[in-house]
Write a structure and sequence with these properties.
The protein has 507 residues and is α/β, with parallel strands linked by helices. It has three domains: 213 residues, Aspartate Aminotransferase, domain 2 (3-Layer(aba) Sandwich), CATH 3.40.640.10; 112 residues, Aspartate Aminotransferase, domain 1; 81 residues, Orn/Lys/Arg decarboxylase, C-terminal domain (Ornithine Decarboxylase, Chain A, domain 4, Alpha-Beta Complex), CATH 3.90.100. It is built from 13 helices and 22 strands. The chain has a seven-stranded mixed sheet with strand order 2-11-10-9-7-3-4, sandwiched between helices. A four-stranded antiparallel sheet has the order 12-14-17-16, covered by helices on one side. Strands 20-19-21 form a three-stranded antiparallel sheet, with no helix packed on it. Helix 2 runs parallel beside helix 9, helix 3 crosses helix 8 and helix 5 packs parallel to helix 6. About 5% of the residues have low confidence.
């Protein structure tokens, strides 16, 4: 007889394992921050309010949040930052328009381009060879593209990145405004930025001059999953246009439990911001001190690694990206060891990196335990090397060909860290044209020079390796094969499910 599944029991069984959550949401299931009983699960009736036409308590709550975050207007969203990206891009670019878009944006940004039939002009991030990650967007590359494509109606970038890299928003915003166009920043991972200066986090994009900013309150604040904020501080974008697009993309039945958690973020900042954020900063400082002296593991911009070691603008210290490229561990073996022996659950393992997300709900003892675990594993790596002298432990840095450096693309790749999949290739058609075209399944081996009809990405972080309308060069196909051999699972946003098949437009 087939075993019946019960989601509540299954999740309860998972919680019984006692794994510490080094992942989102930022409240970390800390009950001190969560006060949303089922009795508040209500709808728009007399005495409450309507998120799509706020006139009372929701209007007052959002106005208070806007003041705290430094925005002219703030909208609550219960469909996540995905909703903000869809509504925001739709508000700054007309149908069939042109936009300058960072190629390392989240897939929801690409979906907005597809829905609006927007012609994108890609701006590529840098690449950090030491950790094998995409980094910041160069202001100069934005300026060059605005001059090259003067019909572009705005610029869309992601900052901070999934790993915590922050771009020079102030400089990019000034360049955008000198060309009379808005800057839209997907700051989903930066809702905590710029709120408590003494905590030492970078400034928020809205305070650095961005016109429209989306933030996920559940990622790095105490909002429940799906909660997000959309901030406007600009005269270049009509707020009525934003509201019309939110009516399209946001559910007509918003949850008061979720909106209560958004208001709770503002309340926490006003009432206990200094206390909570200084405690958070203190935990991170204790972690930094605890990992000093690591020989084989390294943590991005923590411990002995500092911002000066890297060629990007700034860094959000709430992210702890652990690199183990100089150890004998595979990603699976290290993740399993940290889960079974040390009882940690991480946000992401990709290539030779492991991402631990911290938040205001974290416990200092957990961060100290993580530091101690890394020091212990570092010592064990030393023992392993002494017992296995025949193993070649050296890290080999391989340089790929460099294309389109003027656009900011760095394709240098460290085979022992991860593979940079953002290879510049021709965007032959718009994303919408490619997804609507007649298409067929094609083996990777036969796909050279074909036009993709689907997205291919790893999740997380949800950055497309391939987008519809893009020409599949030999280099890009070889990179896909290499990523697949490394054990990455691809997500195909089309009809192909086989890891060696891609959906392409018919010739």
């Amino acid at each position: 007889m087939e075993k019946r599944q019960n989601l509540y029991k299954d999740l309860s069984h998972y919680l019984e394992k006692g794994l510490y959550p080094f992942h989102m949401p930022g409240h970390k299931r800390n009950v001190d921050f969560i006060r949303n009983p089922i009795s508040f699960d209500m709808t728009e009736v007399s005495g409450t309010d309507d998120l799509h036409h706020p006139e009372g308590i929701l209007k007052a709550s959002m106005e208070r949040t806007a003041r705290v975050f430094g925005a002219d207007r703030t909208w609550y969203m219960v469909n996540g930052s995905t909703c903000g990206n869809l509504a925001g891009i739709s508000s700054i670019c007309p149908l069939n328009g042109e936009l300058i878009v960072a190629r390392n944006c989240h897939r929801s940004v690409f979906h907005a381009l597809e829905l609006r039939n927007i012609t994108p002009h890609w701006v590529y991030p840098g690449f950090d060879e030491k950790f094998g990650i995409l980094t910041d967007i160069s202001p100069d590359s934005v300026r060059e593209l605005l001059e090259k494509y003067p019909e572009s109606r705005g610029v869309v970038i992601t900052s901070p990145t999934y790993e915590g890299v922050v771009s020079d928003i102030k400089a990019i915003a000034e360049i955008c405004h000198s060309h009379g166009v808005p800057l839209f920043v997907d700051e989903a991972h930066g809702a905590h930025l710029g709120l408590v200066e003494s905590a030492g986090f970078p400034d928020s994009s809205i305070k650095c001059g961005a016109d429209l900013v989306v933030q996920s309150a559940h990622k790095t604040l105490i909002g429940l999953n799906q909660t997000a904020l959309l901030h406007l501080k600009s005269e270049l974008i009509n707020p009525k246009t934003i509201e019309r697009n939110l009516d399209i993309f946001e559910t007509s039945s918003p949850s008061y439990i979720l909106m209560l958690s958004l208001d709770a973020c503002t309340e926490m900042i006003l009432e206990k911001g200094e206390e909570v954020f200084s405690g958070w900063s203190h935990m991170l400082a204790a972690f930094d001190e605890g990992i000093k002296g690591l020989r084989y593991f390294k943590v991005l911009c923590h411990g002995d690694d500092c911002l000066n070691n890297h060629d990007f603008f700034s860094f959000d210290k709430s992210k702890t990206l652990i690199n183990f490229s100089n150890t004998h561990f595979s990603g699976d073996s290290l993740t399993e060891l940290l889960r079974e022996k040390y009882h940690f659950e991480f946000e992401m393992q990709q290539g030779k990196n492991l991402l631990a997300m911290t938040g205001p709900g974290d416990e200092e003892a957990a961060l100290i335990r993580l530091a101690e675990a890394l020091k212990e594993l570092d010592r064990e790596e030393d023992d392993f090397r002494q017992k296995n002298p025949e193993v070649n432990h050296s890290t080999c840095i391989l340089k790929d060909s460099q294309e389109d450096l003027s656009a900011g693309l760095m394709t240098g790749s460290n085979e022992d860290i991860s593979i940079c999949w953002l290879i510049a290739s021709e965007q032959v058609t718009t994303l919408q044209e490619a997804t609507e075209a007649e298409a067929e399944e094609v083996a990777f081996t036969d796909a050279e020079d074909r036009i993709s009809a689907e997205y291919v990405y790893c999740y997380p972080p949800g950055i497309p390796i391939v987008v519809p309308g893009e020409r599949l060069t030999a280099e890009k196909i070889n990179r896909l094969k290499k990523i697949s051999r490394e054990g990455y699972d691809f997500h195909f946003a089309g009809f192909s499910k086989n890891q060696g098949i891609i959906y392409c437009t018919k010739d």
